[in-house]
Design a protein that fits this description.
9-stranded mixed beta sheet; two-stranded antiparallel ribbon; serine esterase; alpha/beta; disordered N terminus; signal
């Protein structure tokens, strides 16, 4: 993995997911102009107790707004949490947007300019510490920092910045939304499970949640299971081509997380290794990653990665070159994969809390003592929301939540969100009245891949319409990248050679468990969402 790809991953895993569009046809609930000056002294006078204003700057670009940097106080145990609040000074649309951060957070990115331009108040916190996106060392032997990062920092800064927003505009009512992806999705789910009064609506994307976030350790170990267990990018591309040919819709996207039952063993080499087959070691690796790690907690399902688009595995955890065991960076001189970095920091800093732990050989899912220690670490960190039944309180308050996940996600398995949503349906009666799930075919971790790239934007539009006008979302139409080359010839619905080709694809996503089915006539454009309809699963 080169530095550009690491940068791409960090950008998506960061999952600021600052939706750049808003529901243009949804009238704002109210609008107001500032009632206070953009100065430290003026803002401190209207700030809630325990909030300290550090700076206030009136900025003009991309639109006039007041940028406020401050801290909020948490108690029992005490800590001080940083926040940034950006308040439009021309006109506020009556909406507040809290930005969920992915990974380890540790910094405060600027507010999305399109949200500011649309009149949103925008808030963000570093979750109680300063650091880098893939480094959880702040949590080691520091339960207060872990508590803040897990959920408390988001709560106290949301309360403080919402109070500031109301006071700044002299408004009592506003709609409050939170959106995040990856760790930001985890953060958003924690907020609505634990603090149902904090938000009116939430978009939870590709969240790190559930009982057992040990995919990073598991996938790392599979690569080094035998000297030939690593799977080269060309072999992963072979799997992807095979799955697309067997299972894709006319748009080239695989909407079935189970890949239509594809078995990697069907590509097993009959003789020696070759470019068009998989060795037994490669088959075993792919199967293990698709199966997922053994459940640490009894009774929980194993959740592995979908086989729909495994070329994304190269970037996230497999690496573009064969790794060598026994060195600090097995992929040297190339940078280590993001998954390897996360596995080390998760285990060494949060869960096992042993700085010398070797994630390849120093932990075994077959060792009961290791598994017990890992479960205790999960309980100590309390990082992942795992109680969807608690959302009954959020529902009772009128809250709405839209979940979404890329089916081809190589960072967090799509099976995790499906398990979570099924648990929610079983534990909260009438869950579809306030919660919907949408799966994005071909989309990687929070973005990337062949699938739709604007799901957070479209989901926020749908959420606003749902919460403010009671229009429940049955579909989301996303926009994908340009039509990819290399799709199998003869695919049903593939446009004729002389057909007009759209520079982008529109993709229909249906409220789970429904799926999009091509219903066009022969020769109809396969990359137009209008040629699909939602159908019940078979």
């Amino acid at each position: 993995m080169n530095m550009q790809k690491i940068s791409l991953f960090i950008t998506s895993a960061l999952a600021i997911a600052s939706a750049s569009a808003v529901a243009a046809d949804s009238p704002p609930p109210t609008s107001a102009e500032p009632k206070a000056q953009c100065s430290v002294d003026a803002l401190q006078k209207i700030a809630p107790q325990g909030t300290n204003i550090l700076s206030a700057d009136q900025l003009q670009m991309p639109t006039p707004f007041c940028k406020i940097v401050g801290t909020a106080k948490a108690t029992k145990p005490d800590s001080t949490i940083n926040f940034t609040l950006s308040l439009p000074t021309n006109e506020w649309n009556g909406r507040y947007y809290f930005m969920g951060l992915g990974g380890a957070a540790g910094f405060m990115p600027p507010a999305n300019p399109k949200l500011l331009g649309a009149g949103f108040a925008v808030a963000v916190t570093d979750t109680g510490h300063q650091g880098t996106i893939l480094d959880w060392s702040f949590a080691k032997d520091n339960p207060t920092a872990m508590l803040d990062h897990a959920h408390r920092a988001g709560h106290v800064t949301a309360v403080a910045t919402q109070a500031l927003t109301r006071a700044f505009y002299g408004a009592q009512k506003m709609y409050r939304y939170m959106l995040g992806c990856s760790g930001g999705g985890r953060m958003t789910e924690q907020a609505i499970e634990r603090y149902p009064d904090d938000f009116d609506g939430a978009v939870v994307g590709a969240p790190g949640l559930g009982w057992d976030p040990s995919w990073f350790t598991w996938t790392t170990q599979q690569i080094f299971r035998t000297p030939n267990a690593w799977v080269a990018p060309a072999k992963l591309a072979l799997i992807e081509r095979t799955v697309i040919k067997q299972c894709a819709s006319p748009n080239g996207l695989v909407a079935d997380p189970n890949s239509c039952g594809f078995d990697p063993a069907s590509l097993l080499c009959k003789g020696g290794d070759g470019p068009n087959c998989l060795t037994k070691d490669e088959v075993d690796t792919v199967k293990a990653i698709a199966l997922g790690p053994p459940a640490v907690y009894p009774g929980r399902p194993r959740n592995g990665f979908a086989l729909t688009n495994p070329t994304g595995w190269t970037q996230f955890f497999m690496g573009a070159t064969r790794p060598v065991k026994g060195q600090a960076n097995p992929w040297a001189p190339s940078p280590p994969t993001a998954g390897y970095i996360i596995a080390n920091s998760f285990m060494r800093d949060m869960f096992i809390r042993d700085p010398k732990l070797d994630v390849i050989d120093g932990f075994s899912f077959d060792n009961p003592a290791d598994v017990k220690r890992l479960a205790e670490g999960y309980d100590w960190a309390d990082l992942s929301p795992r109680h969807p039944e608690k959302l009954s309180a959020f529902k009772a308050k009128g809250g709405k939540v839209i979940y979404w996940h890329g089916i081809a996600d190589p960072g967090i398995p799509v099976s995790e969100i499906i398990t979570h949503y099924n648990d929610l349906q079983q534990s909260v009666p009438g869950s579809s009245d306030f919660a919907r799930l949408f799966l994005a075919p071909g989309t990687y971790h929070c973005g990337g891949g062949m699938g739709p790239q604007d799901v957070p934007d479209r989901a926020l539009e749908k959420l606003i319409a749902w919460r403010e006008r009671d229009i429940a979302p049955d579909t989301i139409v996303g926009t994908g990248p340009s039509v990819p080359e290399g799709l199998p010839e003869g695919m049903p619905g593939r446009p004729a050679p002389d057909a007009m080709i759209s520079p982008t694809r529109t993709v229909l996503m249906c409220a789970y468990p429904k799926t999009a089915k091509f219903n066009g006539r022969p020769g109809d454009f396969g990359f137009d969402a209008g040629n699909y309809s939602c159908v019940d699963p078979k």
